[in-house]
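Q&A log
Question type: sequence-to-structure
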Amino acid sequence: MTPTSPIPASAVPLLSLAAFGSGISMRAADPLLPLLSAEFGVPLGDASLVITVFSIAYGLSQLGFGPLGDRYGKYLVIALAALASSATALLCTAATSLPALLAVRLLAGATAAPIIPLSMAWIGDVIAYEQRQPVLARFLIGQILGVSAGVLVGGLAADAHLWRLPFFLVAAIFLLVGLGLVALNRRLPPHAKSVRPVAGGAVRHMLAEFGHIAALPWARLVLLTAFLEGGLLYGPFAFIASHLHARHGVSLALAGAVIMLFGFGGFAFAMGSKAMLRRLGEGGLARWGGIVLALSLAAIGLAPLWWQAIPASFCAGLGFYMLHNTLQTNATQMAPERRGAAVSAFASCFFMGQAMGVGVAGLLIAHVGAPTLLVGGALGLLAVALHFSHRVRLK
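Response status: OK
Response body:
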């Protein structure tokens, strides 16, 4: 192949399948919390640590994988991470206590960390900015469907008292996708391998990369917005299934199916992203996404009837991906010459925000209840989205 050789057509779909496995791994534990609480004899807030530790490891590990992807090739690092994630998912199935499960979930978060951000960075390397947002939206269909499948599989497994089942599924998906990614990496043309040789030690290089990104005012705004978005959404989000189960008496499988519609809202955005971007622009997408997300999240918390959470969940997904995809697209361009590190810093902030949000929500859930958490998160997200939308229009 020459440097101008076309990229294999299956390159992005394979990355999307890897994101599918990552999405299941992230969210399958949400509906499992009541079962894990009963299984290990701990409060619900303690059981939620299986989400918190995954998010912490996922977020912190980004800081190392971004420069690693720039240095050795993003596609190759993604492929190896998928194979490692298969192994850590299998380790989760072997856990016999909550501390053991927390330890392997920590590992699982670290191994899954590079898949989505490095995929986004790789797309940023090979797709022009003008066409990038729709391509990113289509790539994220994998993660969106993975999130949907994760909460559904987790709910079904919880009702069947088989909490290990989702982790077996994740292991199988990552193994097959990882092998496919390794094979395809060999066929990539040189310009798509995204290798940028650097001089000096790895740690010094990594610090220099992030120092450069942190010095950019626009990058700081994008990173802070991602951190707040992750915490304000996914802190309350982790308790939606247990909220629907406790308040409305629905099964955890049905609660998972309701939350699955969050992903379908994201899918609807992915399908219509090009038209919505053309009509609303980046600022409009962020503004209206935040408004729709905030109203929907509050509706889930306050709805007097369980079925009212069905349209609210769908609309929440639509609003979230309108906002988040705008953030992601800006993340791919905030430091083009250090795109792997920049997108990894973005993902790190987003998932560290998640970890903080779930941790704080786990402490508060017994005192204020899920409805208050959901409404509080909605108000915070609305403020964050409106501020970012305003700054995008001024950019």
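Response note: The CA atoms of residues 223 and 346 lie 5 Å apart.
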